[in-house]
Amino acid sequence: MSTKSNKLFEPALVKEALKHSFIKLNPKIMFRNPVMFTVEIGTAVMLGVCIWIVCGDKTQGSLAYNLIVFGVLFLTLLFANFAEAIAEARGKAQADSLRKTREETPAKWIEAGKDVKIVPSSQLKKGDIFLCETGDTIPMDGEIIEGIATIDESAITGESAPVIRESGGDKSSVTGGTKVLSDRIKVKVTTEPGESFLDKMIALVEGASRQKTPNEIALTILLAGFTLVFIIVCVTLKPFADYANTPITIAAFISLFVCLIPTTIGGLLSAIGIAGMDRALRANVITKSGKAVETAGDLDTLLLDKTGTITIGNRKATNFWPASGVDPKAFIDACVLSSLADETPEGKSIIELANLSKDTFNIEGARFIEFTAETRCSGIDLATGLRIRKGASDSIRMIAEKAGNSYPPETNEQVKKISSNGGTPLVVSQNEQILGVIELQDIIKPGIQERFERLRKMGVKTVMVTGDNPLTAKFIAEKAGVDDFIAEAKPEDKMNYIKQEQQGGKLVAMMGDGTNDAPALAQADVGVAMNSGTAAAKEAGNMVDLDNDPTKLIEIVEIGKQLLMTRGTLTTFSIANDVAKYFAIVPALFIASIPSLQSLNVMKLHSPESAILSAVIFNAIIIPALIPLALKGVAYKPIGASALLRRNLLIYGLGGVIVPFIGIKLLDMVVSIWF
Amino acid sequence: MNTEILGVILMFLVTVGLAIPLGRYIGKVYLGDSTWADGIFNLLDKLFYKVGGVSPAKEMNWKQHLVALLTINLVWFLFSMLVLMTQGSLPLNPDGNPSMSADQAFNTTISFVSNTNLQHYSGESNMSYLGQLVLMLFQFVSAAAGMAVCAAVFLLMRPNFKFQKGTDGLVISGNFYSLFVKSLTRILLPLSIVVAVILLFNGTPMTFKGKDQIISAQGDTISVSRGPAAAMVAIKQLGTNGGGFFGANSAHPLENPNYFTNIVENVSIILIPVAMIFSLGFIIKKKRFGRMVFGIMTLGFLIFLLPTIYLEMHGNPAISKMGITQNLGSMEGKEVRFGSAASAFWAITTTVTSNGSVNAMHDSLTPLSGMFCLLGMMVNAFYGGVGVGFLNFYIFIIIAVFISGLMVGRTPEFLGKKIEAKEMKIAAIIALLHPFLILVGSSISSYLFAHNPTEYAAWLSNPGNHGFSEMLYEFTSSSANNGSGFEGLGYGNGSSVGDNTPFWNISCGIVMLLGRFLPIIGPVAIAGILANKKYVPESAGTLQTDTGTFGIMIFAVIFIIAALSFFPALALGPIAEYFGMKP
């Protein structure tokens, strides 16, 4: 969509984030992040030290040095706040651009079920009914209760092709901000103003209602643990130094402490979480909680509908197979007759394949038999008394055998052959006698095999859900490369499969749109409802996909994994940095009283002051340096968990040990000009 | 190759060679499979159960395991205090040694109940034989208690095991008393008998008679302390206890008569700790995992061992500076019959395993060797004490699993169980505890000494960096439940009371107590909570925890937590001393 920006730092957002960096200095807000809170205390102490020096103290070193330490610590705080603020600003901007599409529009409110009254959209309440006609912008999210319309959803999805939405079915939802291109519909408002999914998402990003996810809590505990260890290290250093007759300045203590605690990850942690939700939103997925994104990274099993996800749209007729002794021409005629009233894509494709004009058939006085899930066949009763049926092989077989007619063995063979080739056989009967078989074939989406392969490497099992018979399902499953399939699936089969997988301790995701999908969407660990789906489905799931794209699950899994990985790698990086910082600061602390410890100064830093300043400056600037990584996320490569760990350990672990040695040395070369 | 080095390699190979089958055997014992020893010891077991009034078949949940452990420890504590404070007037006291003061009895009791065996006394002059026997009993039971609780964790760790549930819905697995008694009768007792008999034949005394008299070459009459030493030496080595019968511990010629007994005693130090790791692989049916743990522990062990052997064999730089050649290596404080390499090997094995027995004086090790001994205790999980060593390692595994799970983009899971906030909280607290106890203890003593050097002058025979190392060592040894000491502590300024002062007795006592029980409670709680969670089967996205890569991750976590947090302290102690000595 046009408003989507990939630039990390847009000037307007940066300005907004800068403002918030200061607002977030409020200790009450800071307290949520224990690591940075301790830095704030340290900064306050340094301020006190500077004032003390101004008042005449001589023991703490020069005022300039202490002021710089204070300044750098203050910057460290601002940088961390900025990281969180810019992530929030980006997420909010993204959500705002979606929300803008549904700003105040006039709505045709149907008062008391009759009179149409024009009101601003903000006055519509849940349960109100409004009217939309050609050219109208839909004022609010709602569900069509009457009518059918073509709708341009490009404002939300970026997809220019119009879609059809109608009442009753699984495609009855309309979204505020989209436009009706033709026809008229009556829509019932499904959300209170300010409580749409988008509003909820914006609230999540803004922080007011943002709750830490379980994984974030666990990580915060670990980081708090590290912080405590280093508090102990720094506090006990005081008596140790007394013993060694070494006076250590307050600035040195606080610098050592701030350098050792994991400020890098502490400062970036919340930004990473927000950026995860933001990335989901950029993929046009609205998440109802941060936890859902995190869970997505953990998924073990994906339930995917065959149609639309694995295969392109619908099946097409590819062959007519008359039974022996049946005239091929007569058979094709019967096939066309039975499909004349069949508006399904399959039915249309039969007429296309037969290449006969509809007008050549006389269907006056004919009665059409609709397809139902129970009979699993459709057909036509002509005025001449001819009864033609077409449907699943077993149901037609039952019709024939019930009437005492035989089921020709070659038809049986043909049915099996078609099924095992991944096709769908439709058996046709005339007056309860088998005429032959129509072969329908699925077309698998190009590139889908590679995506499944990628998922397999991530350790995610894919399950295809289809109404096809097991043979057909198996063929397509193999061809597309899914791991398992549910054939002849009824809605409760999905539910049962999810429950069964969950019983085995697995996390399951599914995508759905229909009301009968709602229980399964609620049961799944990650339920992605299509935006076009019913309100019930959207309420049940924990994500809503604005694009209605069934392959979106795959992207969601990667976003989740990236989120966790970014946390893990930056934690490792942050802690690994400590090695170099120790080697910078510890020799600097004791250089006066224990000159032999100069040998530990492996970086050959210029002076104690320059060593300490270089370390804290490095510690501060590494935060903004890593903001882009925190926002974009660490790239996920499906190369197996152990290989991935090796790779990330090398980059962020070993890199985290080496980089600060270089960085601190370089900074020292600059700082040593003054200190 | 140098025979001294060959001797060291031989000891290590013998240990591993024995530990593999022993690990299998231990695994069978804890799983309740039948072993050859059943015929001999079943009757003894039954006697224990009957006397103790416990039903060994009743399985326990993790909380019940802990309650059982803490209860029997409390009973032992009271019993020991009573005996030590009244031993002077109790039987089996041929040398007429006095009863202990309350603070010394407190320190000694905790020291032995906690498997530390820090000795602020000298056995010859402060202990009656009855007292020694009580302490020996504790050497058995404290080791067995550690092993039993570790076995309980092993049993709870079994992945995808169909656990029974108790009435309160908690998973139950194993009976503490049964695991405890089996640790005694099936593992510690048989091995101790073997080792004790070997020592006996090599000259270690085993008698209840009082001091003997010998006449030296100069014609002087010398009293020689003796007693039921062989039995105690065996269990002090095998049970990672370390508390010797004589004050000089295994440097004493009667406690460790020759190079052969030195091999036997040294192998005994690490045999069970290593075997426990192999038994882990056997019990959880993941041998690869057991081997990975062994590999990482060995890596850490070698990183401490190799430089120590090198340094000790190359003599003391301060002596070299005087122009004296040291062909035998640094021999100050070492026994000539063992040599510098074997002494270095012992020093590292005894510190990594929380054993704490010595065959050389650690105070006299070259500075960096002393640091590696300190690091061995600071990590306290490279093999570690019997049972408890793995429990410490388990905490590091949990933290490593958590970080590396995140690094591969998955909520962390270990052996099919998800690691969440509650487990992290426990793991963080326990990981924190050890640096806390050591650094706070050392800082209090540093503070007292720095601010009142005249009053506490008696504490340090060597002020300066080495004196700091001595204090650091004492608290590290206490917190790690090791029990060895830089024995210079407390003999400064001509003092003869040594470290037997109320400050050291009480502060070390408290540190030992916390350092023993919290690191047991934590891992048992984590294992118990995890066992009660739903099992998540492995998939291609699951991080394998039995690979070398994951091993390196654990190693990195250990390095960061255990080594880095002590860096400033080590810099002020051994590191400063080392650089100060360098020519």
Protein architecture, described:
- The complex is a heterodimer of chains A (675) and B (583).
- Chain A contains 24 helices and 21 strands.
- Chain A is of the alpha+beta class.
- In chain A, the strands form 3 sheets. In chain A, strands 1, 2, 3, 4, 5, 6, 7 and 8 form an 8-stranded antiparallel beta sheet that branches. A 7-stranded mixed beta sheet of chain A has the order 9-21-20-19-10-17-18, sandwiched between helices.
- Mean pLDDT of chain A is 84; it is low at 1-5.
- Chain B is mainly α and 583 residues long.
- Helix content of chain B is 62%, strand content 3%.
- In chain B, β1 and β2 form a beta hairpin.
- The longest helix of chain B has 31 residues, at 421-451.
- The radius of gyration of chain B is 23 Å and the shape is globular.
- At the A-B interface, α7, α10, α16, α21 and α22 of A face α14, α15, α18 and α19 of B.
Describe the structure using short key phrases.
heterodimer; A: 675 residues; alpha+beta; eight-stranded antiparallel beta sheet; seven-stranded mixed beta sheet; 24 helices; 21 strands; disordered N terminus; B: 583 residues; mainly alpha; two-stranded antiparallel ribbon; 3% strand
Tally of contiguous helical segments of chain B: 19
Proportion in helices of chain B: 55-70%
DSSP summary, beta strand count of chain A: 21
The arrangement of helices and strands of chain B along the chain is HHHHHHEEHEEHHHHHHHEEHHHHH
Radius of gyration of chain A using CA atoms only: 33 Å
Give the spatial strand order of the biggest sheet of chain B: 1-2
Main sheet summary of chain A: 8 strands, antiparallel
- β-strand number of chain B: 6
- Mean of pLDDT of chain A: 84
Percent of sequence in beta strands of chain B: under 5%
State the helical fraction of chain A: 40-55%
Count of separate DSSP helical elements of chain A: 24
